[in-house]
Design brief:
With 350 residues, this protein is of the alpha/beta class. It is 47% helix and 15% strand. The chain contains 15 helices and nine strands. An eight-stranded parallel β-barrel has the order 1-2-3-4-5-6-8-9, surrounded by six helices. Strand 8, helix 13 and strand 9 form a beta-alpha-beta unit. Helix 8 packs parallel to helix 10 and helix 12 runs parallel beside helix 13. The longest helix has 21 residues. It binds (3S,4R)-3-hydroxy-2-oxopiperidin-4-yl beta-D-xylopyranoside. The site of (3S,4R)-3-hydroxy-2-oxopiperidin-4-yl beta-D-xylopyranoside has 6 residues, from loops. (3S,4R)-3-hydroxy-2-oxopiperidin-4-yl beta-D-xylopyranoside (XIL) binds next to loops.
Length: 350
């Protein structure tokens, strides 16, 4: 066959491949068309050692969240000594793939390093420890980590202030002090209060609303609320925790305070094996949550807690070894939940 004809055939083939590559939508491309960030919680070791994990992540998402490696028990194991290696790796990966980074979380009632858990400190000493931790961590990634969960899960399941060691050491004002320190460390960072089972308009969600409204009213630097969205199948689609309309109402009232809303830790768990019926219902939960976020201007990001069933915290914490809570299966294949998210991002009109 003459060279010229072979060349023409080659060019046509390349164009076909190129068009095909452009035609296959991803969560990242479809979310981008909506001005929405879409992300997943990540672990530095998996980024380094699982090439399919890294490839799927950068193809499908434009945001990463630190799943546990910026938590105090991991990053300040010894008082005053911070180990940034894991976080540096995550931030470097994100920057290499044009992705944003959510830092999770500066203060939490879990994951205290032993030196803090077992130590005895005055209020002033505890405030200094909190300030040093926040200044050092947030300051190191100033301009590189765009949003922080400053305080995580400070409201108890019945809506009262959770008993935590920070509250015992510092007092009730530990929350607002943490936000002030984070803002001083990086005035450009978006500062979030983050919690679970507060997605709708139940007592806990109302308590979260009251907390952040008080901060807004008093000028405490806060920019958003993280709704973790750790669901059981049917929690949204069958209104077992909060229906889509309730989530929209909650997101709207937070938006009316001038706050952003991020869905920060979505996964949709189940008991036993993931049957086709369960996976179909799970897809409905994912679809309705994406649609809720698309409906409310203040909702700017959707983050799943991991993205492949190969690596999820659910089995360890809820005891189901067959748990399949995420949009990709253990072999990185898209599940009905993934298709539901793509479909909602592509076609849903509020
Ligand atoms: C979990 C992580 O996924 C685990 O790897 C870690 O061992 C414990 O914490 N709500 C939160 C997250 O805000 O920080 C928790 O993440 C899951 C529940």
């Amino acid at each position: 066959m003459r060279f010229g004809l072979r060349f023409v055939i080659w060019v046509v083939m390349m164009m076909g491949i190129q068009m095909n590559a452009q035609e296959s939508p991803t969560l990242r491309t479809q979310a981008e068309t909506r001005g929405l960030m879409i992300g997943a919680a990540v672990q530095s070791g998996l980024l380094a050692n699982d090439s399919q994990y890294a490839e799927t992540l950068s193809r499908e998402f434009d945001l990463v969240a630190t799943e546990y490696e910026t938590k105090m028990c991991e990053i300040q194991r010894q008082q005053g000594v911070m180990d940034f290696r894991a976080t540096d790796a995550i931030v470097a990966f994100a920057e290499a793939h044009d992705m944003q980074v959510r830092g999770h979380t500066l203060l939490w009632h879990q994951c205290f390093p032993p030196w803090l858990e077992r130590g005895t400190f005055t209020r002033a000493e505890a405030i200094n420890i909190m300030r040093d931790h926040i200044y050092t961590l947030v300051g190191r990634y100033k301009g590189r980590i765009f949003a922080w969960d400053v305080v995580n899960e400070a409201i108890g399941d019945q809506g009262g202030k959770r008993r935590t060691q920070w509250r015992e050491l510092v007092g009730d004002d530990y929350i607002e002090q943490a936000f002030q320190f984070a803002h001083e460390a990086d005035p450009g960072a978006l500062l979030f209060y983050n919690d679970y089972s507060a997605e709708g308009t139940n007592r806990k969600a109302n308590a979260v609303y009251d907390l952040v409204k008080d901060f807004v009213d008093r000028g405490i630097p806060i920019h958003g609320v993280g709704l973790q969205m750790h669901l059981r199948i049917g929690d949204v689609s069958l209104r077992r925790l909060a229906g889509k309309d309730e989530i929209i109402a909650n997101m709207r009232r937070l938006g009316e305070l001038g706050l952003q809303v991020h869905i920060t830790e979505m996964d949709v768990r189940h008991d036993g094996l993931p049957t086709p019926e369960l996976l179909a219902q799970q897809a409905e939960d994912y679809r309705q949550v994406v649609e809720a976020c698309l409906t409310v201007e203040a909702c700017k990001a959707i983050v799943t807690w991991g993205f492949t069933d190969r690596y999820t915290w659910i089995p360890q914490f809820f005891g189901n070894p067959d748990a399949a809570p995420l949009p990709f299966d253990k072999d990185y294949q898209p599940k009905p939940a993934y298709e539901a998210m793509i479909n909602a991002l592509t076609n849903f009109q509020p």
